[in-house]
């Protein structure tokens, strides 16, 4: 294990942005510079959606998310948001699909950040986070596997962590309470793979932490800056 770790070890991922990644395209087709996480926040919530070849699944997620966010904004006009779709070097029509939502809702609410080449999920999320304007930043998957309205539970978890040290806090969604039901619905083979994976994580890595595979991760802006500035791995 030590030999493999030594051979496959890499330097810290480069934070370099390609010139094309410093801009997003607005609804008029013009390029605008992306904001920086170092800037003061101007939105209440940023939703970062890493997407790789998601032209078929992305619309379901975007429809549900934007329907929820729009209704919430109507109830509370002080609530402002943005959804950043990070096209991670897709080979399909992911950018075209995402741009349809940009045209429908406006580039102030929906932005598409296209990466020159595939970085991996970690790299895609980081690029989206670094281009966000929100006081709080939510990681959400493009497959829509998690009901978007459940963000309120994650927000409640973040609120319960106050006072936040140096304004840093992270709230992670959990499906631990659904594990028995999910096991019952899986095939025996998938259940075997799941427990095998859990055993390897327990045996080779950490014994106290269980990954319950929920997509929602909500971070304060300060926590996101500190976390993603020191990210070691860009891949899945």
UniProtKB/TrEMBL annotation:
EC number: 2.4.1.117
Subcellular location: Endoplasmic reticulum membrane
UniProt key word Transferase: yes
Catalysis performed (reactions): a di-trans,poly-cis-dolichyl phosphate + UDP-alpha-D-glucose = a di-trans,poly-cis-dolichyl beta-D-glucosyl phosphate + UDP
Membrane topology listed for this record: Single-pass membrane protein
Swiss-Prot/TrEMBL keywords: Endoplasmic reticulum, Glycosyltransferase, Membrane, Signal-anchor, Transferase, Transmembrane, Transmembrane helix
Pathway(s) the chain acts in: Protein modification; protein glycosylation
SUPFAM superfamilies: Nucleotide-diphospho-sugar transferases
InterPro entries per record: DPG_synthase, Glyco_trans_2-like, Nucleotide-diphossugar_trans
Keyword Membrane (UniProt): yes
One term under GO cellular component: endoplasmic reticulum membrane
Main location: endoplasmic reticulum
Domain Glycosyltransferase 2-like residue range list: 46-162
GO molecular function, one term: dolichyl-phosphate beta-glucosyltransferase activity
GO annotation terms (biological process): protein N-linked glycosylation
Similarity comment text for this entry: Belongs to the glycosyltransferase 2 family.
Protein name: Dolichyl-phosphate beta-glucosyltransferase
Organism annotation: Neopipo cinnamomea
Gene name, Swiss-Prot/TrEMBL: Alg5
């Amino acid at each position: 294990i030590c030999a493999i770790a030594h051979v496959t070890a890499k330097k810290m991922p480069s934070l370099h942005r390609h010139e094309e990644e410093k801009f997003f395209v607005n609804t008029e087709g013009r390029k605008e510079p992306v904001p920086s996480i170092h800037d003061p926040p101007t939105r209440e919530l940023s939703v970062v959606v890493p997407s790789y070849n998601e032209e078929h699944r992305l619309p379901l997620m975007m429809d549900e998310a934007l329907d929820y966010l729009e209704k919430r904004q109507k109830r509370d006009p002080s609530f402002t948001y943005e959804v950043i779709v990070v096209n991670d070097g897709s080979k399909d029509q992911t950018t075209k699909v995402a741009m349809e939502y940009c045209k429908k809702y406006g580039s102030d609410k929906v932005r598409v950040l296209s990466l020159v080449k595939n970085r991996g999920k970690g790299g895609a999320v980081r690029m989206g986070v670094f281009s966000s304007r929100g006081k709080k930043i939510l990681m959400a998957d493009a497959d829509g596997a998690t009901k978007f309205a459940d963000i309120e539970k994650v927000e409640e978890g973040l609120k319960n962590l106050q006072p936040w040290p140096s304004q840093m806090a992270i709230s992670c969604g959990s499906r631990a309470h659904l594990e028995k039901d999910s096991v019952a619905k899986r095939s025996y083979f998938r259940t075997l793979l799941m427990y095998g994976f859990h055993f390897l994580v327990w045996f080779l890595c950490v014994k106290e932490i269980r990954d319950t595979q929920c997509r929602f991760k909500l971070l304060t802006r300060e926590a996101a800056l500190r976390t993603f500035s020191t990210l070691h791995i860009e891949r899945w």
